[in-house]
Amino acid sequence: MTSTDQQPFLSIKDLKVHFSTEDGVVKAVDGLSFDLVRGKTLGIVGESGSGKSVTNLTILGLHNPDSTTVEGSIVLDGDELNGAPEKTLEKLRGNKMSMIFQDALASLSPYHTVGRQIGETYRKHTGCSKKEARDRAIEMLRRVGIPQPDVRVDDYPHQFSGGMRQRAMIAMALVCDPELLIADEPTTALDVTVQAQIMDLLKDLQQEFGTAIIFITHDLGVIADIADDVLVMYGGRCVERGTKEEVLRDPQHPYTLGLLSSMPALDGPVDVPLSPIPGSPPSLLNPPSGCRFHPRCAFAEKVADGLCSTERPPLEVVDGRGSACHLTPEQRRELFADFAGSRQH
Amino acid sequence: MSNTEPLLDVTGLTKHFPVKGGFPIRRTVGAVQAVDGLDFQVAQGESLGLVGESGCGKSTTGRLITRLLEPTGGTISYQGKDITHASRKQLAPIRSEIQMIFQDPYASLNPRQTVGKIISGPMEINDIDPAGGREKRVRELLEIVGLNPEHFNRFPHEFSGGQRQRIGVARALALEPKLIVADEPVSALDVSIQAQVVNLLQKVQEELGIAFVFIAHDLAIVRHFSQRVAVMYLGKIVEIADRDDLYGNPRHPYTRALLSAVPEATVDDTPRERIRLTGDVPSPINPPSGCRFRTRCWKATEKCATEAPPLVQVEGNKPGHLTACHYPETGNSAPADRLDKTPRAAA
To answer: Exposed, middle or buried: residue A23 (CB in 10 Å: 0-12, 13-18, 19+)?
Structure first.
């Protein structure tokens, strides 16, 4: 639990998602646990292949059941979703929980008007008339800031600009007032000025309706803007979690530290080279043993007995704060000191 | 070579793509004004950053400089020689000096060729035989870009995204160019890999003295890499200045808004200034009259709609800092009414 006594609205325990492919079993998510309360935003950060999108598709039950094994528990508002029948999930999807995808153009049907696509979800879950659904669609478009919603409701997606399409997607996701909203890189395809608009919109809507939001991104800057809590994923596992302030100001895992130091700041020094993380993200077909970050970790040799390459570091979470690393707290304080100094400007 | 003569001098550069329409005979019914009257110079060994949002014409500019596209108007001169409409033959010797690095490391390498073949391709085309043979040169280049020289016989699919981008860099370096146009060289890469490639490009620029036109939408990376930066909006340069002037003292409202919209991975106790632009970038087929930014600008007046502001050194700017605005920012004028404006529907 993080910084509040509220009951968790969504609770994930030891989630494992494995795909069987021709080349072997891909361990896309390997033992992930987190809780989320109403009205809060959890930011999930990670690189491509870290398992952040798979986690969330699994919550919604959108994985392919034939080739995927899901272990662990996903409890939404008291109901277990893992293994729940498709009918139950169908009632929840778009209603109690919904999702915003990265590519709005690919996620909207080009053959139907925007209004019809928004209204369809509403009709399906409330069984209302077409007229009511249309009115609801107009109301939703107005709420997400589309000008002249009563006219634009009859437009097709191609008549919308990129930012407007993303707004329409948000309208569609929110049409049934969901209690859980999963946003998978919703602003990555947008320009910065439009991205800022969309993030403000999400924040306003969350304040109004108390929605719990999972915000997936690879951009720590976006996290700093929108999240309350942060979960950093690497190679299908959570390597660090905590509040936004804790993780960004005082990272406790070498990967988080590496990510933060490799990004140039708008007011940072310009004459020194950036400090990249060497190597590249691991293949989940054949992930490194022990800590999955150890082949790229600058501090792996500081740990005795080569523990990093043999033993998986446990994620010990106290008050919502924790990291999975074999370094002792004293070692971290010493080794990460440079970082803390360079970011206090 | 004197330092006063710019390596690349671009004046009034324009590119309009025709829009066809009509039935049964398709006629040109309009033009996408992708790039409209650009003026800028790139000095020897200098890195010029081009930033702007999608559709502002920055990639088109890169392709015009390398003459992958035929300019509609204006002139491009390279080392004092006009290459605006030079023929293939005339361009051949110059092409070896102007190279390009592309955004997508998956699409820009031929999957059927070995790395050695890809990197020696430019030498083959230009009939260059370096001392010690092409293979030796390829190994050297692989070493420069931080790849194992023994890997010259491998195929692109055996490399990760970051490594592929290094191969792209090696290919661009093969002919010892004087100017490299890098079009979003890191935006397709993972965050932890981006810094690797930026450092490599910086090393190359410093050690080999190559001039860069660095096209990107990430303002922090452009700031890190470029000595001078030009901000583009809808086919025009709205502001160009030395890095420190542009980021420290932005005079164009768009530059200021763009900088304030960049999310930063810091949790500050004092929040940064936030300017929220309303609406989207208008269509370049039918751009707004006068100043193209006026539809989203909180300072716009009648004058902005009728008169296009020239790109000049406005009062208070240091030499070389040019701004195209009738009402330049002074640094403390808060755009108070910006949120009251109703968003405009995109055309």
So the answer is: exposed
